[in-house]
Design brief:
Radius of gyration: 22 Å
Strand order of the largest sheet: 1-7-6-5-4-2-3
Helix content: 25-40%
CATH topology of the largest domain: Aspartate Aminotransferase, domain 2
CATH class of the largest domain: Alpha Beta
CATH architecture of the largest domain: 3-Layer(aba) Sandwich
Number of domains: 2
Number of strands: 11
Shape: globular
Distance between the termini: 59 Å
Strand content: 5-15%
Largest sheet: 7 strands, mixed
Number of helices: 15
CATH superfamily of the largest domain: Type I PLP-dependent aspartate aminotransferase-like (Major domain)
Order of helices and strands: HHHEHEHEHEHEHHEEHHHEHEHEEH
């Protein structure tokens, strides 16, 4: 298939299928699952030939490196994001750790957005600190102050689009430009928009990563991460993944490819429903603020509107400060169509509560949130949006 002739949706359906690519199955629609740790060779000359091919193409030769199916997954995601190299990992957090450790060493300085995924904060403040990397957290909406934080040993700037929990959308283009100016590697987490709505490497990032567990897999039954790099840093990622043994299992690779077939169909439906639910909550008297990048009042909306081609189903809503944590918990527990769970990106709707102080540390971070009550994070799934709204309305009306 000549990929350039076809739309993204058509390529997601047809690329990396067993009947179109030799070696990916005997005419099957989906490539098979290869559960193999040992690959056999006829003789030592064949091993030598494989070693030469591996240097050029990354061809697998031992089970931990994956299989032809793994390479098919990496190839389609690299193309979707505009990257030259992609490495599938065992989870979203493993993708974060792979990208950071590939680019940093003892004595380096890391700039990381203050609104990132909690475990990413812990990795930077815990693991990296233990091995001699200094971390400074920055306000993702203040480029001027962030640039003044750059030190002579700053090697990486890391952020999310948008940030976790409070969903500020940074000026990604501004951050990439800043990174290039100071010869810093830019790493961006695009789990929320996916490469479908935001091809980050194509837009200027050095490295894009995502928890494929979420929207790519899409069915709440698989773990994997993806790290995508440009020509400059891509080879570093493959080398680091080999050093760390950081690879995804064969069953999860299969489930990831299955999820990709319906990625656009699912996200188009989910994004439409999420905006409808968010707009309803924005008008509710018991909601102080809704944080969804597609809403004009959400911080950084102008960056989303200018740089992204779509939005997805995860967003936050701050309740009125007059409601206690206990009352808010009872409200969430009364919801019938929302499960209580900390992951997201599947076909089902979820709701959880968060306390921000545990996740923020940049100077004056709390000024923008001092008048708000508990934070409700919602993941909108594939249910009928009017029924989700009715469920939320009933629970909010009972909140006292």
């Amino acid at each position: 298939m000549k990929k350039k002739k076809y739309s993204t949706q058509t390529r997601l359906v047809h690329d990396a299928t067993g009947h179109r690519q030799p070696g990916l199955g005997l005419g099957t629609v989906n490539p098979p699952i290869y559960r193999g740790s040992t690959l056999l060779y006829d003789d030592f000359s064949q091993i030598a030939e494989w070693n030469e091919r591996r240097k050029r193409s990354g061809e697998v030769g031992y089970g931990i490196m994956g299989s032809d199916t793994t390479m098919a997954l990496e190839e389609i995601l690299a193309e979707l994001d505009g990257g030259s190299h992609a490495v599938a990992t065992s989870s979203g957090l493993s993708a974060v750790s792979l990208a950071l450790t590939a680019c940093l060493e003892s004595g380096d300085h890391l700039l990381i957005a203050d609104n990132v995924y909690g475990p990413a904060r812990l990795f930077a403040d815990g693991f990296l600190k233990k091995y001699g990397v200094e971390t400074t957290f920055f306000d993702p909406l203040d480029l001027g102050t962030t640039e003044r934080m750059i030190q002579s040993n700053t090697k990486v700037i890391y952020f999310e689009t948008p940030g976790s929990l409070t969903f500020e959308m940074p000026d990604a283009r501004g951050l990439y430009s800043m990174a290039r100016k100071h010869k810093i590697i830019s790493i961006v987490d695009t789990t929320w928009p996916t490469s479908l709505y935001y091809p980050a490497v194509k837009e200027g990032a050095d490295i894009s990563l995502a928890a494929g567990t979420k929207y790519y897999a899409g069915h709440s039954d698989a773990f994997f991460g993806i790290v995508i790099g440009n020509e400059k840093v891509g080879p570093m990622l493959r080398h680091q993944s080999t050093l760390m043994g950081n690879h995804v299992g064969p069953d999860d690779v299969y489930l990831a490819l299955r999820g990709l077939r319906t990625l656009k169909v699912r996200l188009d439906a989910i994004s439409k429903s999420a905006v409808k639910v968010a707009k309803y909550l924005e008008k509710h008297p018991k909601i102080m603020s809704v944080r969804h990048p597609a809403l004009p009042k959400s911080p950084g909306h102008e960056h989303w509107k200018e740089q992204f081609t779509g939005s997805t189903g995860l967003f936050g809503a701050f309740l009125s400060p007059k409601f206690t944590r206990a009352a808010s918990e009872r409200m969430v527990e009364s919801l019938e169509l929302f499960g209580i769970g900390y992951s997201w990106g599947g076909f089902e709707s979820l709701a959880v509560l968060y306390d921000l102080p545990a996740y923020r540390s940049a100077p004056d971070w709390d000024k923008a949130f001092k008048d708000f009550g508990p934070l409700l994070r919602l993941q909108i799934g594939l249910e009928e949006p009017d029924e989700l709204i009715s469920d939320l309305n009933k629970a909010l009306e009972a909140l006292s």
